Amino acid sequence: MKRRVRFLGIVCTFLGLAVLDCAQTTAIVGGTLIDLTGFGHSTNDLPDAIILVEGDKIAAVGPARSVEIPKGARIINARGKFLVPGLIDGFGAQRTQGYASAYLYEGVTTVYVPTIPKVGGGDGELEVLKVGNPSPRLFLGAPVTGYSIDGIDTAPDSLKTTRLHEPRLSSEQLIARIDQLAVQGFRGITIGSDVWPDQLDVIVAEAKTKHLAILAEPAFASYPYAIRSDVEALVHNDHYQMELAPAPAKLERADGNGANAYQFLCGVKASSSSVTELAIQLAHSNTALMPTLAIEATADLLDVPNPWKPCSSVLVSPSDLDVPVDPKTGASGWLSSLPPERRDYVRRCGWHKEKIDARLYQLGARFLAASSASTYGVMPGSGLHLELELLHRIGLTPREALAAGTDNYAVVYGWKDVGRIEAGRNADLLILSADPRQSVSALNHIDTVMLSGEILDREHLLRVDHSR
After folding, report:
1. DSSP states of 253-304 as a string?
2. What gap in Å lies between CA 214 and CA 233, rounded to an integer?
3. Alpha helices in 300-395 (DSSP H)
4. Cβ neighbours of residue 259 under 8 Å, at least 6 residues apart?
5. Other CB atoms closer than 10 Å to residue 54's CB: what's the count?
6. pLDDT tens for residues 48-58?
7. If 152 and its partner were Cys, which of 59, 148, 169, 368 is the partner (CB 3.0–4.6 Å)?
């Protein structure tokens, strides 16, 4: 039975989860609206701002002197506080209600989930996807490969066999695959390793007509070719940095053996000409990097806190994660699985990859924030906070790091419904009691989370049954 509660001077209906249902206009008044446009380079912050929310959309944004508050509107006093868009995790998962609640508690209001098909009896991310209540908005992505109409990527150990003996998908088949995904409501695609350059061109062109986000992890096509083809995001630094390896090592990777490319990567100097050339191409392109730094930092214990420390971790069980960190000791399950003599090398290589990303940033590369939550123990919600901290560690300013998890998605993917606080977009936003321009850790001081125009009860989120 619904119960009535009094909140902010008006009567609302409590839905039994964590949302206060109030249909009237809401006015958020007095806070400083942080400008995150221009990849975090713009600084046109708006003090004493007013944000009007009607239903699930933002109706108006502006200075107090120019925005009229409707009579009877619900007023949220944000004076002395800071307003930013709801966070976007560009590469995540949602497997339980606990995941959904953890995301929302930490201010993540949109999660892009790259699904994979169910193969060989195992669960793909689509099969274990949990649409929670409440839940961040979920944008689903799908794989597009060069040989399988269902998007089943060629197994790494059979890339050469596939290349020599299997029939490639035609342009018509690839276009049909893209069109079908758009009709089904997918918001993006990931171009797989077995896609050839000419196929990549077809995929990118068609995906752009359907306004799908375009991620890529190529092997048959080079990363420079993918950038030139206008791919929007290159995923995982231990993949795109392999472009720095010599040609023979890259050819071996295209055959399914990336060991030599990885070994070279761990020794290439961040100041090398190959790093500079890649950075310059990125700086003059529309392609952003999605390094998922949290994976390496968590798996290799690169001076990061135990992921079980944030209070939202109570919503997640170790069995919900892939190769989790030990909750008590903080020991990495991945690192512990390696021979002792190899662990130092792996950790040094992890630090080295951060240095390469730092150099790419210094020379103009742009970034999108994504946690790859569930992988190697990365947590939903707090894992994105960690990713933003790590982007700051490689050189991004706090404002640039926050932009990587908000406005950059509106720019790079052309998303017009999330990522910004502006009229017409979904009313997803955070009110912070600390200044995010000074420190990324301001995200640990969330005062209010608004999702689709509704205020979430963050403390109630921590009490929701997360086993569902």
Report:
1. HHTT--HHHHHHHTTS-TTSHHHHHHHHHHHTSS-EEE--HHHHHHHTT-S-
2. 6
3. 333-336, 340-362, 382-393
4. 252
5. 16
6. 999 999 999 99
7. 148
Does pTM top 0.90 for this prediction? Answer: yes
Burial of 5 (0-12, 13-18, 19+ CB in 10 A): exposed
Alpha-carbon distance of 150 to 159, in angstroms, equals 17
Cβ(213)–Cβ(203) under 8 Å?
Answer: no
What pLDDT was estimated at residue 275?
A: 97
The DSSP H or E segment spanning 430 is: strand 429-432
Cα 64 vs. chain centroid, distance in angstroms? 33
Task: State residue 158 phi and psi, 5-degree precision.
Answer: -130, 20
C-alpha pair distances (Å), 149 with each of 49, 128, 172, 348, 399:
50, 22, 11, 40, 41
CATH no. for 87-412:
3.20.20.140
Question: Cβ of 73: how many Cβ atoms within 10 Å?
Answer: 17
- Looking at the DSSP bridge assignments, the partners of residue 108 are 87
pLDDT digits (tens, 9 = 90+) for 225-274: 999 999 999 999 999 999 998 888 888 888 778 888 888 889 999 999 99
Per-residue pLDDT at 22 exceeds 80: no
Integer-rounded Cα Rg, in Å, for the chain is: 22
Tokens of 228: 């030139």
Helix or strand or coil: residue 177? helix
Output the average pLDDT for the chain.
Answer: 91
Phi–psi pair at 60, nearest 5 degrees: -160, 150
Closest CA to 70 of 56, 81, 57, 60: 60
Euclidean distance between CA atoms 176 and 223, whole angstroms: 25
Domain ranges of the chain: 3-85+420-461, 87-412
Q: Which of 15-24, 125-134, 291-300 has the lowest mean pLDDT?
A: 15-24
Percent of the chain past pLDDT 90, that is, above it, reads 81
Residue 196, CA atoms < 13 Å, CB-side half-sphere:
14
Q: What angle do CA 212, 254, 296 make, to 5 degrees?
A: 70
- Tokens describing residue 457: 């009860």
Residues in the chain: 468
Distance CA 33, CA 58 (A): 14
Q: What is the pLDDT of residue 4?
A: 31
Instruction: Return the CATH class of domain 3-85+420-461.
Output: mainly beta
Direct distance between the N- and C-terminal alpha carbons of the chain, in angstroms, rounded to an integer = 21
